[in-house]
TrEMBL record:
GO terms for molecular function: ATP binding; DNA binding; DNA ligase (ATP) activity; DNA-directed DNA polymerase activity; exonuclease activity; metal ion binding. Its cofactor is Mn(2+). The keyword DNA-binding applies. Pfam families: DNA_ligase_A_C, DNA_ligase_A_M, LigD_N, LigD_Prim-Pol. It catalyses: ATP + (deoxyribonucleotide)n-3'-hydroxyl + 5'-phospho-(deoxyribonucleotide)m = (deoxyribonucleotide)n+m + AMP + diphosphate. This is DNA ligase (ATP). Transmembrane segments: none annotated. It is an enzyme of class 6 (ligase). Keywords: ATP-binding, DNA damage, DNA recombination, DNA repair, DNA-binding, DNA-directed DNA polymerase, Exonuclease, Hydrolase, Ligase, Manganese, Metal-binding, Multifunctional enzyme, Nuclease, Nucleotide-binding, Nucleotidyltransferase, Transferase. Residues 259-372 form the ATP-dependent DNA ligase family profile domain.
Length: 772
């Protein structure tokens, strides 16, 4: 909808259909009062591109200033063409300002008039209002934040754009380790603040403008005097004990509004989303007042996550949110943010209510559900937690949503008794200490309505399983399509501690394929598969059995003299099919299938005893590098995603396995002899205590090594990441790169110079190192 200051001010209402914008000129703008019918004159269809226009139309037809007043999506009730032909078009709107059911009704034509007059009417539903005038409330653009005067003057300082928020994965226990920081989980509305100087917009997680609901917060942000910024945080109402109280916030009785800001996404025109979390937070702390009341920095809680969570629960807080210090900001639900709740607390769709036999009580309990696909699944009732005011307000909201049939797909007969069914549009937040085996809520309590969430968003988030928990069953709807490959059970948790799903594993291999395939193509590979997640049974597969069509085979003669088919993955489709099979890790040969007798690399795997620090491992890698430099061989490091480092030496295919094996063995033994207190060159766990095993055994025929950019089946869900020697010296651990943090690494290859090193073993190398 565009506000158009032409010869006469009006609002252009446009609905996209069949490649054009059906258009009406609403002379007085929209009204939320169903009794207020606004004249809407049908105009010619416009191109779709015109729907986002904002600016000044020069002299001529339609001249004047145009402001983008609202935008969103619409859902027609039935066939659009037939409805327009009949003159009654009903539809649902999900805009930033207008929502709910609406109707356009054609009036009888006047004699000698070619104008097609319609009426724009608000339906009676939860979004209707008799005391709110949207035209008076909102005068600024949803795109730029400017009013008509500002657009006419050509002001260029527009508001930053809304950014879809990052969401946390639910976990049973918080993650551990120094890579994580923790925050109090506030009980309020997720709000993104778009700031341009004195102009502020408060946006919900779905991009709806709530500035007019909370003017004190907007004024406090405006007073900060920031040049431009996008803040992410939680808007809460604090009770007398200083704790967030969602019931006060949702009932509109909040006197102590506080906006806890925990992230800074943009500042002064520059995006910070590609910066690590700790960098964003440092900048955020610097721009917020230290003594703020209405706007406050959400402090980090340092220490053991489990202890912090227990302390939060003892203080009757909702829980904590744990975030990786180095995580980039990624819209959507990602395991670099994890939430741990003290008690069950979730959103549920209100699909009906039970009548009350008590005088003055409009209902006995609400009937709740959540979506699984398109079906609303019944989850039980809530009959406590309502104040008299909340109950009265809720009854008024439900009055216009009655329907004759149940919206639930599985409502039990007991719940049908005395039930009044509702259109499933309202979302309630409910606490519950437990659920039955059938998923029904027990001892639930109503906290308030979630005005910031749509009913269709409310669905069960797959919870990470304990190590002994059975896998949840998956349905055909639980399927992810990537590049033509179907990944089933996509929401199954594969890494419980990190909250990483099978679908996210597949997405990582889709994203990293351009970097992985050069190290994988035409090279026999073994798959480390965990079909039930890393907490279940895992196994290596090197022989080709029944395989998908994109995973190839190569026949290899084994030590026994017989031949067997091994696996080859030459493209992204094969990589994704392997992920569908539950593949977590890729382990490749040091030779390619066309010359299996000629290895093209030599690898030293530094495998430390648990007591050895990563600084000692880095020192060992540097020692190997210096020795290799002395004999004229360039080398490249890779952190393995576990505890060690691989030192990789590219080779021209001139020597066989015996020569490569003897040289690598000699290098390992020479270092072990020179520093026996630090190194060992034999695979003995007992003798390894306090030392690093220089594993040269990767350089034998049939041996494999982890492929660059492969995931590791470890609790951290880290990847094996190629690095430069300079970068290696700065890393705190081998498992610092995860799928959330690694995408930025894919932009530039740390090993880009490797192709320029055409090097080979020499006869003197073979002679010298064979003596060890």
């Amino acid at each position: 909808m565009q506000k158009h200051a032409a010869r006469r001010l009006h609002f252009d209402f446009r609905l996209e259909h069949e490649g054009v914008l059906l258009s009406w000129a609403v002379t007085r703008g929209p009204s939320l009062d169903p009794a207020d019918k606004r004249l809407a004159v049908r105009t010619e269809d416009h191109p779709v591109a015109y729907g986002t226009f904002e600016g000044v139309i020069p002299s001529g037809y339609g001249a004047g200033t145009v402001l983008l007043w609202d935008e969103g999506s619409w859902i027609p009730d039935g066939d659009v063409d037939e409805a327009v032909k009949k003159g009654v078009l009903k539809f649902q709107i999900q805009g930033q300002r207008l929502r709910g059911g609406w109707a356009l009704v054609r009036m009888k034509p006047k004699r000698r008039s070619d104008r097609e007059n319609w009426l724009l009417i608000k339906e009676k539903d939860a979004e209707a209002s008799t005391d709110k005038d949207p035209v008076a409330i909102w005068s600024e653009s949803v795109a730029s934040g400017l009013d008509l005067e500002g657009i006419a003057k050509g002001k260029s300082h527009a508001l930053p754009e809304f950014i879809p928020p990052q969401l946390a994965v639910a976990v049973d226990t918080p993650p551990e380790g120094p890579d994580w920081v923790h925050e109090i989980k506030h009980d309020g509305y997720r709000i993104q603040a778009l700031i341009q100087g004195k102009t502020v917009r408060l946006m919900t997680r779905n991009g709806h403008d709530w500035t007019q609901r909370y003017p004190p917060v907007a004024r406090a942000l405006s007073a900060l005097g920031l040049p431009s910024a996008v803040l992410d945080g939680e808007l809460v109402a604090l009770n007398d004990a200083g704790r967030s109280d969602f019931s006060q916030l949702s009932n509109g009785a909040a006197e102590r509004l506080t906006y806890f800001v925990f992230d800074l996404l943009e500042f002064d025109g520059a995006s910070l989303r590609e910066k690590p979390l700790h960098v964003r937070k440092k900048k955020l702390r610097a721009i917020l007042p230290s003594d703020g009341v209405t706007v406050r920095f959400s402090e980090d809680l340092q220490g053991d996550g489990a202890q912090i969570a227990r302390a939060a629960c003892r203080m009757d807080l909702e829980g904590i949110v744990s975030k990786r210090r180095g995580a980039l900001y990624r819209p959507g639900r990602h395991s670099s943010w994890q939430k741990s709740k003290c008690i069950g607390r979730d959103e549920f769709v209100i699909g009906g209510y039970r009548r009350s036999d008590k005088k003055g009580r409009p209902f006995a309990s609400l009937l709740l559900g959540e979506y699984e696909g398109d079906q609303l699944i019944y989850r039980g009732r809530v009959g406590t937690g309502f104040t008299d005011t909340a109950m009265e307000q809720l009854a008024g909201r439900m009055e216009g949503l009655r329907r004759t049939k149940s919206p639930f797909s599985n409502i039990p007969s007991e719940a049908r008794r005395d039930a009044v069914w509702l259109e499933p549009r309202l979302v309630a937040e409910v606490t519950y200490p437990e659920q039955t085996a059938a998923g029904l809520l027990r001892h639930s309590s109503f906290m308030g309505l979630r005005e910031d969430k749509m009913a269709k968003e409310v669905g069960r988030q797959p919870a990470p399983r304990s190590k002994k928990a059975p896998l949840p069953g998956a349905t055909a709807k639980d399927t992810l399509e990537i590049e033509g490959v179907s990944v089933t059970h996509a929401t199954r948790i594969v890494f419980p501690n990190a909250g990483l799903t099978k679908g996210e594993v597949a997405r990582w291999y889709d994203l990293a394929a351009p970097r992985i395939i050069p190290w994988l193509s035409n090279r026999p590979v073994s798959l480390f598969r965990c079909p039930d997640g890393i907490s279940g049974e895992c196994f290596f597969q090197k022989h080709a059995g029944h395989l998908p069509d994109k995973i190839r085979r190569v026949s290899i003669r084994e030590k026994s003299g017989s031949k067997a088919d091994y696996l080859l993955i030459n493209d992204k489709a094969g990589l994704l099919q392997a992920a569908q099979m539950g593949m977590i890790e890729l382990h490749g040969w040091a030779a390619r299938a066309d010359r299996l007798d000629r290895p093209d690399r030599m690898i030293f795997d530094l495998d430390p005893d648990p007591s050895v620090s990563f600084d000692q491992v880095k020192g060992a890698a540097e020692d190997i590098r210096q020795l290799l430099d002395q004999v004229g061989l360039a080398s490249f490091p890779m952190v393995t995603g576990g505890k060690g480092v691989h030192v990789m030496v590219p080779l021209m295919r001139r020597h066989g396995w015996d020569d490569v094996g003897s040289v690598s063995r000699g290098i390992a033994r020479s270092l072990a002899q020179a520093a026996p207190e630090r190194f060992i060159a034999t695979a003995s766990l007992e003798k390894r205590k306090g030392r690093i095993f220089i594993d040269w055994l990767r350089n034998r025929r049939g041996a494999t090594a982890i492929v660059p950019y492969s995931l590791r089946a470890r609790t951290s869900a880290a990847i094996a990441a190629p690095v430069t020697w300079k970068e290696l010296a700065t890393l705190p651990a081998s498992d610092v790169f995860t799928p959330e943090l690694a995408p930025s690494r894919l932009k530039e290859d740390p090993w880009k110079d490797i192709a320029g090193h055409r090097q080979a073993l020499t006869s003197s190398m073979i002679t010298v190192f064979s003596e060890f």
